[in-house]
Specification:
The protein has 260 residues and is an alpha/beta fold. Helices cover 48% and strands 15% of the residues. It has eleven helices and nine strands. It is globular. It binds 3-methylmercaptopropionate-CoA (MMPA-CoA).
């Protein structure tokens, strides 16, 4: 796919990992309408060989959020449609065909944090910082952040970030749940790619269940969640791939779980 602000490269064994990169470093990878649409199309049109994806940003920062130069051009109705377009694009990331690992560095702010929070795993390097400057710019989140970010860090922390402009550094971000991995500066992509390659080896149906069922079960009353879990587990275990993987373990041909 061709977009000057987004590149897609397919890598790894059996072409199983897609690298989706924001390539607008001169504007700190700020997300204009074209770039949001390119993200949507990238996840809608993943090649069939792809089993996992990494998303990262070129230059000193992951993403400076919404392209503020486009904001002044919109009236209320257009603003509503704009936000809904972000929702569709980031839903394609979260509920697309494959798990997505975000490799974070530098600024992960505003819509950049909204994009990161639509991914399944976030790997941050030590240069990462997180903020929601919408509060001080007189606007609100519009890319699904009010739904996804509280699920990572809680409503009160998000409220604080928006009311006070609080910036979390990389270590505190990992501590509160903005990222699951913290790695030395300059190594987030390598770690994310390693994780994506590992994820790509799972049975596709297991990955699909994790991406699509887990967040929905989290929204359901417990009683419904147990039922969804039972249905999902019945479907997953009935796949031939599940049978052969379990047999491989029982016959001593599959890796044991190693002590961490
Ligand atoms: C931009 C943007 C942008 C940079 N829209 N052009 N997001 C923000 O409020 C964050 C605004 N950006 C920043 O605070 C800083 O740029 C950074 C901390 C991310 C990076 O600082 P730095 O010193 O490396 O870069 P810079 O000199 O500030 O910016 C370089 C260029 O990128 C400059 O343009 P130039 O033509 O003068 O070179 C900046 O204007 C441009 N640039 N960030 C447009 N965001 C779905 S709703 C989501 C709502 C939000 O995301 S609100 C939060 C928006």
């Amino acid at each position: 796919m061709k977009s000057k602000d987004l590149s897609i490269e397919i890598r790894g064994e059996q072409q199983a990992v897609a690298i989706v990169r924001l390539t607008r470093p001169a504007k700190r990878n700020a997300l204009n309408d074209g770039l949001v649409e390119a993200i949507r199309k990238a996840f809608e049109n993943m090649p069939a060989t792809v089993r996992a994806a990494v998303i990262d940003g070129e230059g000193e920062h992951f993403c400076a959020g919404l392209d503020l130069s486009e904001l002044s051009e919109r009236d209320a109705g257009q603003g509503m449609l704009h936000s809904r377009a972000w929702h569709v694009a980031l839903e394609r990331v979260q509920y697309g065909p494959v798990p997505v690992v975000a490799a974070l560095h530098g600024a992960v702010v505003g819509g950049g944090l909204e994009l990161a929070s639509a991914c399944h795993i976030r790997v941050a390097d030590d240069s990462t910082f997180y903020a929601l400057p919408e509060g001080s710019r007189g606007i609100f989140v519009g890319g699904g952040g009010s739904v996804r970010i509280p699920r990572l860090i809680g409503v009160s922390r998000m409220t604080d970030m928006m009311l006070t402009g609080r910036v979390y550094n990389a270590a505190d971000g990992e501590r509160i749940g903005l990222a699951q991995y913290l790695v030395p500066t300059g190594t987030a992509f390598d770690k994310a790619f390693e994780l994506a390659q590992r994820i790509a080896q799972n049975a596709p149906l297991t990955n699909y269940s994790l991406m699509h069922a887990l967040p929905r079960i989290a929204e359901q009353p417990a009683d419904h969640g147990f039922m969804t879990e039972a249905l999902m587990s019945a479907i997953a275990q009935s796949a031939p791939e599940a049978k052969s993987r379990v047999r491989a373990f029982l016959e001593g041909r599959a890796a044991k779980v190693q002590k961490a």
